[in-house]
Design the sequence.
């Protein structure tokens, strides 16, 4: 059965993380005629509202209204509207309408009339009573046509909300832009914050994730400056949605948890149920169905408690999907049956499409394929279907055609689904958005590759698998065009192996079946491997053993040999002794140094003793690789920085390592930047493209949440606003042509692996900048052994050895050294990544 996350994430319009800034008459206009105490009570209640203390704001406004209804009618009017506004923000639309039912602001308070009409319009929108909402907006618009009241900004915002509910996202975007402009003219920071928040939320509807994140970050900043806790909570939740849709589930879950916790603290039930539901989506993606179901049920209970029809529909939809994934088809049908009349009542096409998807899931699970195919086709063909809806429907159709044995239709639909994905991906502009996005298509790629292999199309399957690899890297280097269709290159894989002078080991990890392609200049062989989950458990256990400095060949033999037998032994006959091997890894395998695997037998030994092993991002990039420019042997050497942070103390052996490297280069070819001169500006402002070798001797820090925030720790810039960190996001913006970049620091390789891109961090950044080869570390490096290793590395390079062979000889020198340095902890963290 197809994973449901592509469909779950389609349900955007119900997550109405959208707010209406219901303005108030400025206090300056009240002070001349109203008692100071009434003004103070209103100002305090208003401040509570802006800070997100909605329960207390509602209570204080109600108390103030009863206290000043006679003595200060103008302030009392504002207090009543503030009470209704607090209710609306808490998701209590019915209560807000009931409160205002018999209230009619005097004609001398036209500002209050506009405000009341805006509150009622949004409440009716929430109740899906669009005709009544339109009436209220028309009345408010007539008043605003007579004069530009401050509260007219809310009318624009309410029209944007109405447009979203009708699926008119372009129109909504324009209304919210107008709201923002109105707020800026009136210097209304709170309205600016809500407009930015609404713009971010609207961009999410149309899969513009870069723009959504920009607007949401702007809103989050403004909200924090204002102390608007509830709006900041919504902005962080919007960011969570963007990360979720980009495939970054870990970061999304953190943001959803934070948002739910804050909503609960603030007493905002509607927001709490939203974040419970979105957290459920994320748990489902992570395979934790029990926690997902618990989140959905808690969200439904709150939706029923506040009688929010919109949210009841939404939570019933996700519960129907969830029940299918758990195999509870009767329960899923019950949810769908309960949904049907509610969806008809809502009149919203997106609700119809979601219900069709749910019924299609149920029919497919019951092997009612004709019914399921008809439903998925209808969703795919509907012009109002969102991208994620079409992607889910097309993936399901491909699976169903495959089950029926209609191979031609299955192949066509797999390719159509991947074209839909590529079209969505090309709308992304930033590497930080593109990097995690492939995770959304990985299940489709996996199913398509399995489909091709089952039909004997082994070479085509490899072309498809490689098409998903290193796309962000290759496009950033100008090797790939930004195509909106799925067109895998027909690779001459034997020719690529010949060009690389190596056996290529290409891995694909699937949820139930993984694969290894072994490629030589004359032969390609395919080998089945265990599932992704099984391999991940083995790799993580072995990594934990390697990270201890006391790990020996004897202690590592059991797990090291086990991984060798799974990952390398099937292709051993295609790897001549002493030859080169290029690993094209996938997923958790990116975190494994294959050289440490133990070759079993009468004389167990590490695989590094049999082969020269390096890593490459993709077959396509190997095919595009070209010789390094003739830059002679010019060296840029930075390090031995002056510490500005106790977390990064001085490296005792840094000077020694730099001295050993310098002696392998002519003085005229060296640019050495040490101590205060080793700062970020010194690197970024130099002519980097003249150097054949770039070497850093410094601390490194890897960011798990945002790998492009990984950094090399240098000295502070004395005459610049830059920090002492040289960030990966800065590195990628400064082109280089180095034959070899060496990051002699901890975690230079990175700590986070993205689907299709592998580990992303400092090494990836230098490849993205144009380096031909990069040496980075997979874990913490030893300050004691590294100078010796680097000395041997550069001696080998000086003698003409290629980077991969030079690094291998440096490692073998440590391995064969008496004492503790022969343990993998000391020589194995460094890995060579080959790029162009």
Sequence:
């Amino acid at each position: 059965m197809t994973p449901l996350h592509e469909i779950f994430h389609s349900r955007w319009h119900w997550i109405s993380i959208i707010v209406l800034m219901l303005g108030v008459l400025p206090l300056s206009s009240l002070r001349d005629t109203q008692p100071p105490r009434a003004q103070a009570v209103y100002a305090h209640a208003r401040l509570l509202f802006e800070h997100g203390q909605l329960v207390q704001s509602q209570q204080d406004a109600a108390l103030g209204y009863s206290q000043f209804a006679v003595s200060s009618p103008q302030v009392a009017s504002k207090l009543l509207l503030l009470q209704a506004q607090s209710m609306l923000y808490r998701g209590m639309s019915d209560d807000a309408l009931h409160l205002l039912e018999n209230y009619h602001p005097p004609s001398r308070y036209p500002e209050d009339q506009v405000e009341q009409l805006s509150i009622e319009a949004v409440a009716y929108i929430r109740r899906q009573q669009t005709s009544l909402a339109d009436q209220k907006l028309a009345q408010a618009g007539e008043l605003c046509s007579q004069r530009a009241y401050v509260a007219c900004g809310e009318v624009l915002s309410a029209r944007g909300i109405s447009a979203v509910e009708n699926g008119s996202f372009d129109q909504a975007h324009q209304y919210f832009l107008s709201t923002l402009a109105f707020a800026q003219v009136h210097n209304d920071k709170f309205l600016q914050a809500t407009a930015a928040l609404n713009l971010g939320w609207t961009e999410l509807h149309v899969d513009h994730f870069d723009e959504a994140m920009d607007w949401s970050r702007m809103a989050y900043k403004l909200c924090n400056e204002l102390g608007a806790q509830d709006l900041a909570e919504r902005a962080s939740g919007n960011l969570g949605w963007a990360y979720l849709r980009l495939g970054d589930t870990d970061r999304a879950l953190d943001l959803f948890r934070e948002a739910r916790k804050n909503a609960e603290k603030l007493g905002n039930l509607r927001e709490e149920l939203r974040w419970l539901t979105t957290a459920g989506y994320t748990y489902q993606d992570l395979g934790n169905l029990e926690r997902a179901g618990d989140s959905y049920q808690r969200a439904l209970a709150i939706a029923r408690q506040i009688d929010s029809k919109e949210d009841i529909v939404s939570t019933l939809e996700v519960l129907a999907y969830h029940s299918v994934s758990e195999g509870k088809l009767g329960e899923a049908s019950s949810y769908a049956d309960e949904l049907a009349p509610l969806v008809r009542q809502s009149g919203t096409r997106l609700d119809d499409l979601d219900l069709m998807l749910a019924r299609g899931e149920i029919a497919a699970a019951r092997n009612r394929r004709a019914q399921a195919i008809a439903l998925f086709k209808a969703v795919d063909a509907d012009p109002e279907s969102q991208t994620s809806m079409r992607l889910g429907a097309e993936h399901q159709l491909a699976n169903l055609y495959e089950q029926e044995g209609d191979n031609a239709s299955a192949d066509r639909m797999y390719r159509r689904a991947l074209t839909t994905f590529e079209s969505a991906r090309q709308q992304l502009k930033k590497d930080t958005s593109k990097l995690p996005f492939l995770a959304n298509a990985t299940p489709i790629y996996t199913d398509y590759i399995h489909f091709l292999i089952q039909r004997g199309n082994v070479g085509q399957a490899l072309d498809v698998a490689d098409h998903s690899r290193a796309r962000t890297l290759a496009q950033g280097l100008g090797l790939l065009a930004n195509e909106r269709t799925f067109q895998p290159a027909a690779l001459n894989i034997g020719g690529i192996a010949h060009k690389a002078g190596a056996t290529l080991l290409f891995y694909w990890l699937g949820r139930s079946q993984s694969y290894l392609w072994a490629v030589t200049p004359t032969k390609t062989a395919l080998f089945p491997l265990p599932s992704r989950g099984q391999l991940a458990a083995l790799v993580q256990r072995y990594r934990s053993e390697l990270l201890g400095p006391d790990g020996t060949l004897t202690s590592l033999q059991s797990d090291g040999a086990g991984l060798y037998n799974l990952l390398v032994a099937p292709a051993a006959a295609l790897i001549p002794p002493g030859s080169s091997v290029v690993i094209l890894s996938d997923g958790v395998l990116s975190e494994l140094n294959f050289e440490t695997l133990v070759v079993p037998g009468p004389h167990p030994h590490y695989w590094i003793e049999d082969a020269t092993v390096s890593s490459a991002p993709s077959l396509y990039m190997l095919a595009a690789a070209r010789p390094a420019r003739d830059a002679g042997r010019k060296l840029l050497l930075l390090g031995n920085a002056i510490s500005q942070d106790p977390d990064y103390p001085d490296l005792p052996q840094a000077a020694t390592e730099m001295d050993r490297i310098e002696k392998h280069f002519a003085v005229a070819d060296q640019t050495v930047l040490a101590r205060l001169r080793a700062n970020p500006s010194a690197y970024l402002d130099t002519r980097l493209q003249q150097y054949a070798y770039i070497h850093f001797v410094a601390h490194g820090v890897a960011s798990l949440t945002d790998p492009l925030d990984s950094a090399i720790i240098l000295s502070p810039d004395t005459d610049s606003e830059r920090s002492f960190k040289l960030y990966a996001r800065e590195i990628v913006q400064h082109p280089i042509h180095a034959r070899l970049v060496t990051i002699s620091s901890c975690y230079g390789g990175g700590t986070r692996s993205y689907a299709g891109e592998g580990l992303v961090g400092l090494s990836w950044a230098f490849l993205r900048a144009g380096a031909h080869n990069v040496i980075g570390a997979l874990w913490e490096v030893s300050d004691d052994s590294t100078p010796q290793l680097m000395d041997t590395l550069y001696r080998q390079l000086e003698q003409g050895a290629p980077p991969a062979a030079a690094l291998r000889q440096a490692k073998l020198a440590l391995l064969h050294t008496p004492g503790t340095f022969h343990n993998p902890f000391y020589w194995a963290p460094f890995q060579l990544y080959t790029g162009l």
